[in-house]
Amino acid sequence: MSKWVAGIDIGGTNTVVGLVNHKGLIAYRDKLKTEDYATPEELVKAICLSIKKGELQLEVRVSAIGVGAPSGNFYHGTIDHAPNLKWKGVIPLASLFVKASGIKTVVTNDANAAAMGEMKYGAAKHMRDFLYITLGTGVGSGIVANGQLIYGHLGFAGELGHVIIEKDGRICGCGRQGCVEAYCSAPAIVFTYHEISKTKQEITATEICELAKNGDKYAIETFNKTGDWLGFALANSVAHTGPEAIILFGGPTAAGNLLIDPTQNSLEKNLLYVYRNKVKILRSSLPESDSAILGAASLV
Amino acid sequence: MSKWVAGIDIGGTNTVVGLVNHKGLIAYRDKLKTEDYATPEELVKAICLSIKKGELQLEVRVSAIGVGAPSGNFYHGTIDHAPNLKWKGVIPLASLFVKASGIKTVVTNDANAAAMGEMKYGAAKHMRDFLYITLGTGVGSGIVANGQLIYGHLGFAGELGHVIIEKDGRICGCGRQGCVEAYCSAPAIVFTYHEISKTKQEITATEICELAKNGDKYAIETFNKTGDWLGFALANSVAHTGPEAIILFGGPTAAGNLLIDPTQNSLEKNLLYVYRNKVKILRSSLPESDSAILGAASLV
Are residues B192 and B234 in contact, defined by beta-carbon separation less than 8 angstroms? Predict the structure, then answer.
């Protein structure tokens, strides 16, 4: 008999629910609008109802719940001061799930969950040392070393989006200056495009990506500069954990080689010689939310 | 009956041999001049003779040998292109030991070995997540996460001395520019002192340390700036592995709070808020070569 678990990906905009078997098959999926729920309790209740629905449809029972959430703390089962969620403070997420469903629940950071999914089913399959970087509204990351996710002493390891790459640089959402996130997130890409094109037109990173693919020189230059910054940051990260590969995930990676090539070039240029030509940059091989669902599911 | 192992610390200048029991007692010590030996084979032979001497003196048998060496590669048992040793290329160190002694041998990077020693017997006792930074001719490091040393895919993880902190900055021995090593090693401290005092007098980092303790304003300013750079670098490192503490080791740490205080201040100033006031900077609590001997011994 197959064992089923629920993998949940809570994001600032959407929350995705999946029921996953031990082979990594996501047999049931559901999507909720995170912002529709006034309190974490209400969101958790809605997720548990959705899980129940999935159990009925598949005629199975879920034995555990794994949750990936922004600022998710693996040790405490909490969401700690997430800047991209409207709920402030420390949210005892795992307890809320247990209270609502009676099912054992494990919580981790969304990027960590996605890194786990990638290791079990995606581009990092069979790798024991890799970096997983999510480019989106922010820049998140999961670090796997010795085949294990690194959580750090307080559960906050792998904040590569908040490594400072430009002293006195751009203001970052975290309140400091010069973080990777201020140069390589989707909003940062828009900022760079405005700088280069000397325009202020309303545009999204996705649209800049389309422009670049159609040969727009400002858009291409935007991805070149983004890759320059990202590659520099990653060269310093490689000096920390010596990974086999770096997996990029998220909207801006749709630019493909327009982003990957300048990133790899900048990486090589800035790497310590012992690492040169030895660290691959790959795109995630899993569809959008699958890595987080599968990763969250694989926590339990 | 006590089990005995040999812990060896190979440095550019000296090689230290220790015989260690399972309680971490170094009951026999010997020192060789690394540079006295023309080939790695001759050094290994001399080390094995010294081990033999120790066995006779203590009336014990050594069951395994652990070696910490610059650019030591744990996976391959080799020294790979060590810039601070006169022997070039890849040296099959573990094989040389087995050939000369018949005893099972494990090799690792010298800073990694020292980090292990610190975790078993020193300032990092009972810690599962910490950074170990050696300040000397170069800047080395060992990263422990989830209670394990991080070796990385190729065995070269933890090169924090070669994280770039100043783009287009000082030339580093590695051939690049702006590395931590070019700002925080003992020779870099001398360089900074020359810059600040606008002199070119021949002086060592140890002498600058003495000057600082006696109130010399240039020397004090030198350690302030060194701490500024080091704290900045460490703030970025904390964002990677989220350690409980950072342990500093090596000659320049003799400056005590003249180095620790500006380092801690710069660390706090540059840390992402979730880590603030949560990461201690400590000095190694083990005597000079003991951490490496004990760490090398604990490998086996």
Answer: no
